[in-house]
Structures
1.
Amino acid sequence: MEKQLSIATTAHRSLPSVGLGFWKIPNASTAQLAFEAAKLGYRHFDCASDYGNEPEVGQGISKILQSGLCRRDDLWVTGKLWNTYHRKEHVRKACERTLRDLQLDHLDLYLIHFPIALAYVPFEHRYPAGWSYDPESKTPRMIPDAVPISQTWEAMERLVQAGLVRTVGVSNFGVSLLRDLLSYANIRPSVLQVESHPYLVQNKLLRYCHQEQIAVTAFSPLGAPSYVPLGMATPAESVIEQPSIQRIAKEVDRTPAQVVLRWGVQRGTAVIPKTEKLERLQENLSLFDFELTDEQMATISRMDRNQRFNDPGVFCEQAFGCYYPIYE
């Protein structure tokens, strides 16, 4: 059964359809978790400067390569350009900092993390820069910066030309922004990374991406669990606790999480579930010796509520004093 998604790139590489996301992974356990994941067969690591653990991911990757578990070309490592580095003079510096922290000479994919440009925070002042311009202020706030995406994208393309990244893409973009980007891009985005799970199916967005040969990676593919500790979701909103998911899990003799992740892969997206538990690492990767029926797939898709847990239009105002919707 196919385990990878083909994407249109000049490097003719494939994006592994199951990866490990490093958002919210504690620094102290990150390096060993990356190594253990590679031992189990993971070859897709999803990173970002904003996660604050790229140096530890780099330690894990170094150990993976030195131990002979795999070659560098077997790994797919994704990095992301943070919001404070959208101006053309900062893009390469941000990428080079990520490469240094990850102990790599190139990335397989570099994404614009959000279609949100914020005022530049010098690396020597604070890194990762975070959302607030001055977190120590009595009223920490985001400070938007009027940078056209076209300017940022041109600088992203130069990273490919310089050999620092193999492919470029975007995250948290909708169809309108993608269509605009495609109108001027000399190097097309290879991948779109967005939140997607049974409560946020996003069929039209996925259909458009497939039409344009843009691969899609679904972050938070299990929905609420990552957001409950942040107060952005409640345990009652858990997808895997829903009766229909529980029933299908019994029908296919798999865990509810495996059913939801298999739904994501089977509909043509890569998935990057996050976990710190070794048994969950194995469980999340074991998706390729069973299939869901068309009826089971449709049942899961009908759970759609258009419910977004990761929405800057909500959390930016609540946490960073700036109303900044991007999906409306």
Note: Residues 1-11 have pLDDT under 50 and may be disordered.
2.
Amino acid sequence: MAKRSIIIIVLLFVAFPAFQYFYSGKLNEETAKRTGFEIIAHRGVSQPFRTDHIDNQTCTASRIYEPKNNYIENTFASIQAAFAYGATIVEFDIRPTRDKRFVVFHDEKLDCKTNGKGKVSDLTVAQLKQLDVGYGYTFDGGKTYPFRGKGIGKMPTLEGVLRVFPNRKFLIDNKSGNNLEVAKRLAKTLSRLSISEQNNLFLWSQDIAYNYIHSKLPNIKRLLLPFDHQKKFFITYLLSIGLMPVGDAYKDQGLALPIKYTKYMWGWPNRLLNKIYGAGARFYLVVNDPGDLASISNIPLDGIITYDIEVLGKYLEGVGAYDPRH
């Protein structure tokens, strides 16, 4: 009798996780009727680079692959091309300048990608406009620099981007973290926009900076939670074998997951999405390979995030009923 009980317990320990993993269930009515699909282009059209063994100090411009396009990230041309390829939202990075403005640039320092030296914040906009933002890009260890001389004067200001693309949606990545003085300056800059213009903007920022800006400009919201919050969500979900309740803390918040990790998610896709959407949250997948699009064509996502909009663009009309262009 004891042996039979042990066998039953063991089977239950095996069967329940297997059920949680393999049983996707059905979409509930609210999830199935979800509408809207955003295509978010990270840094516009850019140069892909090797991502192995990198940290915040790695010069990514020296790790690019042989260029397949002529665009430099975070420039007017890059942003325009991303929209032309089908993006509905373009993400770009901002840094504060010495004269209390903002330029569209990813790195804290200029040394990697430009012919300048030191921090972005040590120079004025006028000085930054003299630099070549394509200067440091090389795919062959410094033998050639295919963008050198092609990026002179092409570092945009935040105001310039919003002026040139007044009716477009943007995800602004505030690279200054929780620097409250920078947050106050950014809030003042964005306060000059109309309400309709503010409604087109989303902010990627750490909690202290975001909370300050959102308190002053409630129409500017987050598209996605910071990485540490998202990491906590997915790790907790995995450790709970999919039983984790998704509370009100995630209401109106966005979660994103690289498509390669969906295979580890309990009850993917239907039961996971029912849980996330039921809490009033949003869900996006990070997709860079056109071959992955067919597998998500009938999943009611809120959108995809891609680093390769120029590659995915021509395939996006096949995403499915949730693509707004269908």
Note: Residues 2-22 form the longest helix (21 residues).
